[in-house]
UniProtKB/TrEMBL annotation:
<keyword id="KW-0238">DNA-binding</keyword>
<dbReference type="InterPro" id="IPR001647">
    <property type="entry name" value="HTH_TetR"/>
</dbReference>
<dbReference type="GO" id="GO:0003700">
    <property type="term" value="F:DNA-binding transcription factor activity"/>
</dbReference>
<keyword id="KW-0805">Transcription regulation</keyword>
<dbReference type="InterPro" id="IPR009057">
    <property type="entry name" value="Homeodomain-like_sf"/>
</dbReference>
<feature type="DNA-binding region" description="H-T-H motif">
    <location>
        <begin position="26"/>
        <end position="45"/>
    </location>
</feature>
<dbReference type="Pfam" id="PF00440">
    <property type="entry name" value="TetR_N"/>
</dbReference>
<protein>
    <submittedName>
        <fullName>Transcriptional regulator, TetR family</fullName>
    </submittedName>
</protein>
<dbReference type="InterPro" id="IPR050109">
    <property type="entry name" value="HTH-type_TetR-like_transc_reg"/>
</dbReference>
<feature type="domain" description="HTH tetR-type">
    <location>
        <begin position="3"/>
        <end position="63"/>
    </location>
</feature>
<dbReference type="GO" id="GO:0000976">
    <property type="term" value="F:transcription cis-regulatory region binding"/>
</dbReference>
<keyword id="KW-0804">Transcription</keyword>
<dbReference type="InterPro" id="IPR036271">
    <property type="entry name" value="Tet_transcr_reg_TetR-rel_C_sf"/>
</dbReference>
């Protein structure tokens, strides 16, 4: 499939999801929106979940791209890297439609019987955890702590947890307060935690 054909299907899927919701969006509805047969759609995608995964994965990659560029180029200015990280978190928390899609896919991966989708979702988390680990190294000078991966995974879990709360109700917590907490976490909380863990490992 060429890129224009794929983009056409994904744009059709976005419109269907916006109109019908994630759960009720069907291959038939997406095919009709894209102006193609259901069989033609199945020729390109094995099922609805694979279309949804590509939509979610594209958003996550776009969100992570500035962070990865900063890490790849060896950005040494902590303030610049901090700003990139905070902007990435803001983009994630400011997109409830994507977050709903993301949690639907995670639900399907955990409770469904599609092992291929399960591996796709697990590998996505592996990539995010690795990116968070690299960010810790870049910002705080490779602290060399034994639980760095667990710390990185906890950061991802914090973002997911905040996203869930915002999906349920934006009245639970002001998003700006979440952002303020993240800035304080990177400036004060995380450095103090890393220092404690380094001392503990001695």
């Amino acid at each position: 499939m060429n890129n224009s054909g794929k983009e056409h299907i994904l744009e059709a899927a976005r419109r269907v999801i916006a109109r019908m919701g994630v759960k009720d969006a069907s291959m038939q509805a997406i095919a009709e929106e894209a102006g193609m047969t259901k069989g033609g759609l199945y020729y390109h995608y094995k099922g609805k979940d694979y279309i949804l995964f590509e939509l979610a994965d594209r958003f996550l990659r776009e969100t992570a791209a500035p962070v990865k560029r900063s890490l790849f180029t060896g950005e040494e200015d902590r303030e610049k890297l901090l700003e990139v990280l905070l902007q990435g978190i803001k983009k994630r928390l400011n997109n409830p439609e994507h977050n709903l899609l993301q949690f639907y896919l995670t639900h399907e991966a955990v409770l469904g019987k599609n092992e291929e989708l399960y591996e796709l979702v697990v590998n996505k988390f592996r990539r995010w955890i690795a990116t968070a680990e690299n960010a810790i190294d870049q910002m705080y000078g490779q602290p060399g702590i034994e639980v760095k991966r667990a710390l990185a995974a906890s950061m991802i879990a914090m973002i997911d947890g905040q996203a869930i709360q915002l999906i349920l109700s934006e009245e639970l917590v002001d998003k700006e307060d979440f952002f303020a907490c993240w800035e304080a976490f990177f400036r004060c909380g995380l450095p103090a935690m890393l220092e404690y863990l380094k001392e503990k490992n001695k």
